[in-house]
Amino acid sequence: MKSSIVFILTFIVALMLEGLVFPTSLIWYKPEWTLLVILYWVLALPLKVGVGIAWVLGLLVDLLQGGVIGQHSLTYVIVTATCATLYKRLRMYRRWQQSIFIFLLISMNQLVGFWIDHYTGDAEPTLMIFMPAVISALLWPWLFVLLRSIRRLYSIQ
Questions:
Q1: Which of 20, 43, 44, 54 could form a disulfide with 76 if both were Cys (CB 3.0 to 4.6 A apart)?
Q2: pTM of the shown model
Q3: Where is this protein localized, as stated in its record (predicted)?
Q4: Burial of 157 (0-12, 13-18, 19+ CB in 10 A)
C-alpha cells in the first residue's frame, strides 16, 4: 500500500514537471521527466513497474501535451522494455555510465517521437531533438539519488 502511494506521488510530480510551459526558444531544453522517473523505478523495482505503467503514463503525457494519442505510449513502452531487459547490467554501472545509457534510451524516445511527428507533418529535421536526451542524462545522477533516498526512507522493496 505504502509503495503504491509513493509510486503514484512520484509519477504525479513527474507529470506536473512534464506539464511545465517552457518558452518557445527553450522548448528543446526540457527534460523528459516522466520517462526519467519510469526508468528509475524500472531499474529499482522491475517487478513492480514495467511496460504497462509506461503505457498508461505515456497516454497521460499525450493528453497533457495535446499531441498524437499513443505517441508517448509507444515510445515509453519501447524504452521501458529495453531498460527492463537490461536492468541487471545497468544496476552495476556507475552513475555517469548510467547517464550515458539514459542518454541513449531517451535519444531512442526522441527519434521515434520525431519519426511520428514528421510522419504527421508536425516536425522538421533538426539535431536539437537530442537536446532533451542530453539534459535528461545530466539530471539523471541527481534524480537517481533523490528517488533512491525516497525509496529508502519509505522502505519500498
A1: 54
A2: 0.95
A3: Cell inner membrane; Cell membrane
A4: exposed
> Nearest 5°: CA angle at 63, between 58 and 67?
90
Residues in CB range of 39: below 8 A, 6 or more apart: 79, 80, 83, 102, 105
Residue type, 90: L
Cβ atoms 37, 67 nearer than 8 A: no
Q: What is the dihedral of CA 138, 30, 21, 72, to 10 degrees?
A: -120
User: Nine-digit cell at 98?
Assistant: 548510467
Among candidate residues 132, 14, 3, the one with its CA nearest the CA of residue 64: 14
**How far apart are the C-alpha atoms of 91 and 85, rounded to whole Å?**
12
